[in-house]
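Objective 1.3, modelling of assemblies. Example input:
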Amino acid sequence: MTLEKDPLNLIITGVGGQGNVLASHIVASAGIKEELYVTVGETYGASQRGGAVMSHVRFSSQAQCSPLISEGQADIVVGLEPVEALRVMAEFGNPKTRVIVSPRPIYPIWVLSGQAKYPPIEEILGNLEELADRVQVVDVSEDGEALVGTNVLMIGALAASGLLPIPIESFEEAMREILAPKDLEMNFQTFRKGMQAMTGG
Amino acid sequence: MSTLTVDQPGKSVLMMGNEAIARGAIEAGVNFCAAYPGTPSTEIAESLARVAEHFGLYAEWSTNEIVALEAAAAASLAGLRAIVAMKQNGVNVCSDFLMTISLSGTKGGLVIVAADDPSAISSSNEQDSRNFAKFADLPLLEPATFQEAKDITKWAFELSEKLGLPCMIRSVTRLSHSRGNVKLGEIPEGRPVARFEGAYIAGAFVAIQHSALHQKLEQAREAFEESEFNWYVGPEDAKFIIVTSGSGWFYSREAVAALGLGEEVGILKIGTTWPLPERFIIDHLRQATEILIVEEVDPFLEQNIKVILSEQAKTLGPIEVYGAKSGHLPGFGDINQDKVARALASIKGLEYRTRDEVYAQRASDLALPILPPRMPTVCPGCPHRASLWAIKAALKLDGRDGFVTGDIGCYSLGAGPAGFWQLKTLHCMGAGTGLATGFGQLGQFGFNQPVISVCGDSTFFHAAIPGLINARFNNSNLLMVILDNGGTAMTGFQPHPSSGYDALGRPAPVVEIEEVCKAIGVEVKVRDPFEVDQAIEDLYDMLQEDGVKVMVFRRKCYLVESKEKGRKRVFVEPEKCIGDDCGCARFCSRVFNCPGIIWDQEAQKAKIDEVVCTGCGVCATLCPRGAIVVEGG
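Predicted structure (C-alpha cells):
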C-alpha cells in the first residue's frame, strides 16, 4: 500500500489511566495488517499515575520510522481529554492537522486544589479550531452517564473518520487479538458508538 | 494470543522492543529467566513468564537484581541458556557479581539486558549502563530497531557461549517501550539437560584471569568486525559521516532526510559498541573529514571513537569530531530527530525549521497561557495517599519538625503534592531506611528531629532489610513505615516474596514482612491506613519512643483491589456539604487532593467524579461534616 502522506503521523493523547497504550496498540496492530511499517512511541511509567500521556503512531510504506514525531509534524491528533489535545497541538500541530477530541475533562490535581484553573471547554475547542484544519468533537456521554472506555470509543471515531487507510475490519481483527475475550463484546459496542458519533448515524 | 508463541517464521508482527528481546531469547532456545521489575525493562521477563509453561522454560521474579543475575548465572554454569533483565539502576545492584563473573567466566549463553531510561522518564537517574560493560570487560550490543532487538538478543546467546562470557545488551526507553514491525524467526525445539562441572573461581590468579578476559574481548572484537549489526548507508565518498548506535540510528536517518542531505552525508551505524570493531570503523572513515556522533546519554561512543582516531591519526588524517564535547548534542537527556537535525544544520550552516514560525507562535499563544499543568499523582483510592496523610498528621502532632526519608516506588510521588510533600530525601532502592539509620545516630550532636523512613513491600525485600538490621544492631532511632500494597505496584503489580504467588501466577510460600521484622528484634505494628485516625494515633505513639520501630501499613493497591472486588459508590450529600461556609477550606478537594473529588464551581460544593473514584471511602472518614457517604457503608 502507498500512502498519500508518508510517513503518516498520528498522536493519541490523554491522561494516565485512560488507556492510551491500548488505543495505540489497537491502531498500530490494525495498520500492520495493511502491510505497513508501523512504529508506536509511548511515554508512560511515572505518567501512569495521572500525568499527561502521549502515544506517537507512525505509518509508512517505505521504512520503519523513529518512535517520535517531530515538532509540528502531527497529521492527526486524537485527544481522549480536551486540554491534552491542546497541549499536543501546541507542540506538534500544523495548519493541516486534523483533530478528533473527547470534550470530557479530567481535572489535574492542581486544578482540584485551586492552584491552577481549567479553561472553559468552549475556549479549548475554539483554540483547537483555530489551530487545526478541522476539529471533530466526539461527545456521547448522556445524562451524566459514567463513560468508561474513552480510548476504544475514540478509536471507533478515528476508524470511521477515514483519516487512516485502514478498513474497519482490520481494527476489529486487532481488537480480537489484543483484548481479553470476556471484554470483547463490551468494547465492540463502545467502538461502534464511537463510529456512529463520527458518522452522525 | 501472545506474539511470542507464534510459530510462523517470516511473519511480520507488531512487537514492543521488550517483547522483541524476549522473542529473540525464545528463538535462541532460552531456558532460564530471572529479573527484578523496573521501568523500562519489566516486559522482557514478564513476557517470558507468560509463555514459560508453553516453552518449558523457568522464569522468576527475583528479590533484586544481583540475586537475579546470580540465579541466571547458575543456569549458565550448568550449561543452560539464561537471560536476566533490569533497568539501569539494577546494573548497580548486580555490579558486585558482574565484576567477578566476568573473571570466572560462564558456560551456557548468559545475556544481561540493561534497559536505560534517558531523561529518567520513570527513574531517579539517567545513568548510561554502557559504561558498566566497559568497566567489567564485557561485550556490549546495542539494538537500533525492533527487528534488531530480537536478532541481536538471539545472537548474544551464541556469542556468550562462544566466549564463555556474559554478553550485555543495552536498550533504552524509546526502544524498549515502543512498538514496531518484527519479522519472526524459527523457534528451536528440545531442552538440554542441566549439569554442573568444573569450577568457576574468581579471585584465584586474578591477574591471569584478567588477562584471559582481555583475550576474550579481543575475540569479541574480531566477531564484531564481521557483524551484520554494523552497517553503513550513504554515498561511497561521503566526507561527512554520522556515527551512531541504538536509538540514534532512527533519529539520524530522519534528520538527514529532513535536511535533504542524503547525497552528501553518510551514516555509520554500530550495533556492537564494546569493544568497538576498529577495522570496520577505520575502513568507513577513510574518506571522512568530519563526523557527528549521535547517541543517548553519555558520550560513550564519542570518547571510544576518539581513541581510535587518535591511534589511527596517520592513516585517517585529521577528522573534526562533533557531538557532546563540541556542544552540538547535549550529552544528557534523551534525543530525537529534531535535536540531531539542529546539530547537523548548525554544523552545515543550514536552517532547520519544523513548521512555520508564525503558526508556532500562534499555537503557543493559544495554548500555553491556559493549559493547567498535569502533575503525576498517586491513583484515586491509593493506600499511599492515606498513609502519607497519616504520617503528615502524626509528625505535625509530634511537633518536633520530624521528616520522612524515602526511596523508590509509587510512594516516591510523596515528594510532591500527591503525598503532601512529605518525602524529603529520594535516591535509590532502600536508601530511605539507610539514611534514617544515620539520622537516628545524630542525637549526640544535638539532633532531635524524629525520622520516618518509608519503604514499599517489594523494596523492603529488595534493599531495605540490611538497613533495618543495621539500625537494630547499632541502636539507632527511627520509625520505618512499610507501605505494603501487596505487590510491586509501580511496574504493574508483579509479585514479591510476601505476595503469595510467583511469576507464573502459581501459589508461592509467603515471607511475612512483620515476621522478618520481629526476627530482627524490632517492635512492629500492622495497621490499615484507611483507618486513618487509628493510624495517626499509633504513629504518634511510636514517635514518642526511642529505638527502632516498624509500622506496616497494609492495604492492597486499589487498582488491583477494585478490579477484584468491584467498587462501592461514593457521593457527596449536597445538603450536608456547606461549601466554603464550613471552614474546612475545601479540605477534600484542595488539601486531601484525591483526583476523584472535584469542586463543583456552580454549586460551590464538593462532588465525587464517579468515573475517576474507586470507592475507597477514605475521604468519607476525613470530611469534618460527614457529608461524603459510602453507599452500603
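Helices of chain A lie at 20-32, 82-92, 109-112, 121-131, 150-161, 168-178, 181-199.
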